[in-house]
């Protein structure tokens, strides 16, 4: 039956809601019938993909509509289009069958598809004998979706997509295009109004900002050579091995001579050897997923599946990770599932409705960052995010994800006043949908990728952040989140506050150091001295220390010694290893020239040695997260501002950590040590090698009758290892 003229007009205008029902190749009473839009053609002849002639089609509309009967069964076709002056080949996108299948439909509908990144987005592939790109996007409330790009003159009439109504996904296979093609989605909302062109939520590559188009790209790396690294981490308990993290903002660690970003290969050549030399075990990048605004540092992400184009192609990041792994360094990414920005090309009202976000601003708007909050209770949104976590582990072999702003996800009233939030069904403030989402992320990641680590930036007293995300046997509501580790924000705030005080006043604030040990083993903690502490007017770590310039350096060295001897994994933001003086800025590289000054290079030497000791001495890492690895020796000497404890691990020589947080040299300080005989001084932050005054114990002390007399250098931390 011939369709009405209005339907044909809609096809030509690109406004037909179901073009696949009329365009392409179909079986009919008279045989195989083809209809195609071939703009500019005067005549057209159909061929199979392998080149067999199937017959001619006739132009029935001067705007480019052709139709006619073809030989054989329905199959994909190419048309040889002709005018009086030229010929060209056009493969008919509407003659191809769907790429997605019923199993995809079922899993997507359930929210249990764990390979969405293989199905949605843009995939360079071969389909039914033709090479091209398959596009698929979730927009369930849209009236119509087209893929537009540099391959169709950004014309929404050219490639209107097939609607899989049961799951709200639109798809189309566009033949004869490959990778490195720019594209977006043209979406007409339920109100009939076209949305601003949308970037692909699953885009694997994007244009360099300020341009915002998605780019077709392959992200597969077929020749990974890091099996030894991944096998090692899958075989160990991360709580009981050294984890020392160097936190890096990829855009400002170093710049090239034009003050532009290093690409991933340049970064690999410089950053990886530096981290190896410094003794860190892991690099943690501030978010590298695509983001439009440099000063957001990546925390307002518009392309969760795309490494930022600022640093080159996605393949470059894969090479970086492999290079790090071959050098024994793990790679952790900051990951931001808590919120997303309101940029029009992003997820905001993606199909004309509140699709990824909440409709109610009291649940869907974040006042701190002027961003939108994901609707974690919607299974498709949760699946989108869980798949993203899996994607980075699967496609890029990352070793861990540090989840940003977890506290803001857990509480509905986070940073809100009365009337600005809605309680949960029980009348409480907990965001149970977010809780279950976080539990699902951790359960899935740890099940699918043994050896991976997840870290929570979480600053409240939520119970069980790093407890397994199992279902309680007593049937109560599950609260354990299943992270591998939690950032110890209390340690950071308390100890930095202490180090900023004049030593004469520290005796009155002794608990700033001791209090943290009351809860140090309630979670698996990381001790973070992160980027957040050296921005927004807070100054550098060096500037936070009290005293004159010499004392600030001494305080910083003593503080680092205390931190590396304190139970918990370590994290230090870039630049602080050589005592950067100025506050960090994303607009420029670190002040590497400071290394020419002995005081700064001394701090760097100290951090390198601390990492070496931490890795080499099981007593310092083997029980980082368990109370049996720590014992106070001096907890109450507030008058002298002295702290002393012993670090222990099974079958390891104990290490005693002693800090003197006054500028007074304490000679013959009486100290009971847990072992008779010799103790070697394995670290002294007052060493002249680090820029100190050189006071100490000449390399060792002796314990007789359980008591030692120790020299405690001014504003310094020493470590003593039992030698027997």
Task: Please provide a written account of the structure.
The protein has 724 residues and is α+β, with helices and mostly antiparallel strands. Helices cover 22% and strands 26% of the residues. It is built from 16 helices and 36 strands. The chain has an 8-stranded parallel barrel. Strands 1-2-5-4-3-6-7 form a 7-stranded antiparallel β-sheet. β11 and β12 form a beta hairpin. α4 (264-278) runs parallel beside α5 and α7 packs parallel to α9 (432-448). The longest helix has 19 residues, at 598-616. The protein is elongated, with a radius of gyration of 31 Å. The model has no long low-confidence stretch (mean pLDDT 96).
Question: Notable features of this structure?
Answer:
724 residues, alpha+beta, 16 helices, 36 strands
Helix/strand-derived category reads alpha+beta
Hey, roughly how much beta strand do the residues contain?
A: 25-35%
Low-confidence stretches: none
Instruction: Report how far apart the termini are.
Output: 97 Å
Q: What value does the Rg take, in angstroms?
A: 31 Å
Please outline the major beta sheet. Answer: 8 strands, parallel, barrel
Q: Please give the number of β-strands.
A: 36
Mean pLDDT: 96
Characterize the overall form.
elongated
State the helical fraction. Answer: 10-25%
- Tell me the strand order in the biggest sheet: 16-17-20-24-25-26-27-28
So how many helices? 16
Function: Catalyzes the formation of the alpha-1,6-glucosidic linkages in glycogen by scission of a 1,4-alpha-linked oligosaccharide from growing alpha-1,4-glucan chains and the subsequent attachment of the oligosaccharide to the alpha-1,6 position.
Domain Glycosyl hydrolase family 13 catalytic: 247-623
Keywords: Carbohydrate metabolism, Glycogen biosynthesis, Glycogen metabolism, Glycosyltransferase, Transferase
Active site: 404 (nucleophile), 457 (proton donor)
């Amino acid at each position: 039956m011939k369709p009405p003229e209005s339907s044909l007009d809609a096809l030509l205008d690109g406004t037909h809601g179901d073009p696949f029902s009329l365009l392409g190749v179909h079986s009919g009473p008279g045989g195989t019938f083809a209809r195609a839009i071939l703009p500019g053609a005067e005549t057209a002849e159909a061929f199979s993909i392998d080149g067999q002639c199937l017959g001619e089609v006739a132009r029935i509309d001067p705007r480019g509509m052709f139709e006619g009967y073809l030989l054989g069964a329905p199959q994909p076709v190419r048309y040889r289009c002709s005018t009086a002056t030229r010929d060209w080949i056009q493969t008919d996108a509407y003659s191809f069958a769907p790429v997605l299948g019923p199993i995809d439909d079922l899993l997507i509908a359930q929210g249990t598809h764990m390979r969405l990144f293989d199905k949605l987005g843009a995939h360079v592939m071969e389909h039914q004998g033709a090479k091209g790109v398959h596009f698929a996007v979730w927009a369930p409330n849209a009236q119509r979706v087209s893929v537009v790009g540099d391959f169709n003159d950004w014309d929404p009439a050219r490639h209107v997509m097939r609607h899989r109504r049961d799951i709200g996904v639109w798809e189309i296979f566009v033949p004869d295009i490959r990778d490195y093609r720019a594209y977006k989605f043209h979406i007409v909302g339920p109100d009939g109004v076209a949305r601003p062109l949308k970037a692909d939520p699953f885009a694997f590559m994007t244009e360099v900002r300020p341009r915002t188009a998605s780019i077709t790209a392959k992200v597969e790396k077929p020749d990974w050579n890091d099996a030894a690294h991944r096998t090692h981490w899958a075989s160990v308990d991360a709580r009981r091995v050294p984890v020392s993290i160097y936190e890096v903002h990829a855009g400002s660690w170093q710049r090239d001579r034009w003050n532009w970003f290093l690409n991933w290969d340049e970064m690999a050549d410089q950053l990886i050897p530096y981290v190896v030399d410094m003794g860190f075990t892991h690099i943690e990048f501030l978010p590298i997923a695509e983001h439009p605004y440099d000063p957001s540092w990546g925390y307002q992400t518009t392309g969760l599946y795309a490494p930022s184009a600022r640093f080159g192609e996605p393949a470059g990041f894969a090479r970086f990770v492999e290079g790090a792994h071959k050098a024994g360094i793990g790679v952790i990414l900051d990951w931001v599932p808590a919120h997303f920005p309101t940029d029009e090309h992003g997820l905001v009202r993606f199909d004309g409705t509140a699709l990824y976000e909440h409709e109610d601003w009291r649940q869907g708007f974040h006042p701190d960052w002027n961003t939108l909050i994901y609707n974690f209770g919607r299974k498709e949104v949760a699946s989108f995010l869980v798949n993203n976590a899996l994607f980075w582990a699967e496609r890029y072999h990352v070793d861990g994800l540090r989840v940003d702003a977890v506290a803001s996800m857990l509480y509905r009233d986070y940073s809100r006043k009365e009337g600005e939030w809605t309680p949960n069904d029980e009348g409480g403030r907990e965001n149970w949908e977010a809780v279950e989402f976080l539990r699902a992320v951790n359960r899935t990641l740890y099940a699918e990728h043994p050896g991976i680590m997840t870290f929570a930036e979480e600053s409240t007293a939520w119970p069980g952040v790093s407890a397994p995300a199992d279902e309680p046997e007593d049937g109560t509501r599950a609260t354990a989140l299943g992270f591998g580790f939690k950032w110890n924000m209390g340690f950071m705030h308390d100890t930095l506050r202490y180090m900023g005080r004049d030593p004469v006043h520290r005796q009155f604030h002794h608990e700033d150091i001791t209090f943290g040990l009351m809860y140090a083993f309630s979670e698996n903690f990381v001790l973070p001295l992160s980027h957040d502490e050296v921005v927004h007017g807070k100054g550098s770590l060096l500037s936070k220390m009290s005293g004159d310039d010499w004392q600030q350096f001494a305080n910083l060295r003593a503080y680092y010694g205390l931190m590396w001897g304190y139970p918990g994994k370590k994290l230090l933001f870039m630049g602080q290893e050589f005592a950067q003086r100025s506050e960090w800025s994303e607009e420029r590289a670190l002040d590497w020239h400071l290394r020419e000054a002995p005081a700064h290079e001394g701090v760097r030497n100290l951090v390198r040695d601390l990492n070496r000791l931490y890795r080499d001495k099981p007593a310092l890492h083997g029980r980082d997260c368990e109370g049996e690895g720590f014992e106070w020796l001096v907890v109450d000497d507030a008058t002298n501002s002295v702290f002393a404890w012993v670090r222990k691990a099974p079958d390891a020589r104990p290490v005693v950590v002693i800090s003197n947080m006054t500028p007074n040299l304490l000679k013959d300080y009486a100290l009971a040590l847990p072992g008779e005989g010799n103790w070697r001084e394995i670290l002294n932050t007052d060493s002249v090698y680090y820029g100190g005054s050189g006071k100490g114990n000449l390399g060792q002390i002796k314990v007789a009758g359980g008591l030692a007399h120790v020299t405690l250098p001014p504003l310094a931390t020493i470590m003593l290892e039992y030698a027997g």
